[in-house]
Amino acid sequence: MGAEHDAEGPDRYDRPGPSAVLDRSELAVDVLPAAERLLGCVLEADTPDGVVAVRLVEVEAYRGRDDPASHSFRGRTPRNAVMFGPPGHLYVYFVYGMHFCANVTCLSDGEPGAVLLRGAEVVTDPGIARLRRPTARTDADLARGPARLASLLGLGRDDNGVDITDPASRVRLVAGDPVPSGSVRTGPRVGVAAAADLPWRYWVAGSTAVSTYRAGTRAGRRSRSDGGSPDGDPYPDAASRPRRR
Fold first, then answer.
1. Distance (Å, rounded) from C-alpha 234 to C-alpha 200?
2. Which pLDDT band, with edges at 50, 70 and 90, does 73 fall under?
3. Which domains does the chain have, with CATH numbers?
4. Greater confidence, 197 or 3?
5. Strand residues in 64-161 grouped as ranges (E)
6. Which of 2, 20, 35, 61 has the fewest Cβ atoms within 10 angstroms?
7. 3-state DSSP call for residue 79?
């Protein structure tokens, strides 16, 4: 059976000018308001196939020193150093030996905190997105789950630390219209065992690009910090693993 795709045209997104990037000050706040503010924002990436842009519809907050589910809970390391830097930068890490996940730093310089990007809707030409993620069954699957989102935008080690509030960056965060509070839902973070009950996952009600919730367990490889499960098995076969940058 062939893939099912939404019948939306390629002209849904008018690329804004440099002044449209989100101001860093909007992320220099606690992780919870930062997470809610990120909903509705657009993440753009320059790729070999053209510009790919997605509207963020699902995120998770990780506060830092008082959050046992955060990479920064036990202090600064070479791996998590970006979390301790200024807000508005990408914190990208490699998990399960096969894919990347991306976060946006927040709080002030020196105070660790980040928001995991869990799910997004493609707002540029869906044909380019399908080229980059050919195994997606539907357009909603193109960036549903943090690993799929990172794969679609070509996010990898070289993007760790990138300033996404800089209009000249390869990856840019465009200030979208804030999502009305009545359309925002909150709940526990996906696949997280530590601090499992904290309702620090935010998503846009009704979006088909929101990933499926799964509770964390205290045993097994699927229990982890900063992101939990990348929405089940985001790469069910080798052909669907990241192949383009």
1. 22
2. low
3. 18-229 (3.10.300.10)
4. 197
5. 90-95, 99-105, 114-122
6. 2
7. coil
